[in-house]
């Protein structure tokens, strides 16, 4: 390939790679296109017994040779029971209580620091806030 850059002519030879056709990757403008792999890189065969959270899957469900392999699933008949979900109001109440406890804990710490520093105005404000939080129980 003859190229020229700022008046300097040179020839670039592209490396020639032997490519293998892989499986069908999809369709583009109505035609199938295949993955291409360099010949020196081995093609991996699919692993049929992959599982994620108990559900079997395969990254390449169609084998290259055209033969159809049906995976053997574990059919022991043992099922995991689904735990009953709590109503949303119960969960919201728990979150509300946790938030209130965190606010009280933070207030106690701020009150201790104010007493250690001897800031009377801040101590009065924090005690009023503490009384307001006590009413929210």
Low-pLDDT parts are: none
> Helix-strand pattern, N to C?
EEEEEEHH
Strand order of the largest sheet: 1-2
Helix content: 25-40%
Mean pLDDT: 77
Number of H- or I-type helical stretches: 2
Oligomer: single chain
Biggest pleated-sheet summary: 2 strands, antiparallel
- Which class of secondary structure composition applies to the elements? alpha+beta
**Gross geometry:** elongated
Distance from first to last alpha carbon: 82 Å
Query: From the alpha-carbon coordinates, what is the Rg to the nearest angstrom?
Result: 34 Å
Number of strand elements: 6
Could you tell me the strand content as a percent range? 15-25%
Please describe what this structure looks like.
The structure is a single chain. With 137 residues, this protein is α+β, with helices and mostly antiparallel strands. The protein has a domain at 88-135. It is built from two helices and six strands; from the N terminus they run ββββββαα. It has helices spanning 88-117, 120-135; strands spanning 2-5, 8-11, 19-28, 31-38, 50-52, 55-57. The strands form three sheets. The protein has a two-stranded antiparallel sheet. Strands 3-4 form a two-stranded antiparallel sheet. β1 (2-5) and β2 (8-11) form a beta hairpin. α1 (88-117) runs antiparallel to α2 (120-135). It starts with a strand and ends with a helix. The model has no long low-confidence stretch (mean pLDDT 77).
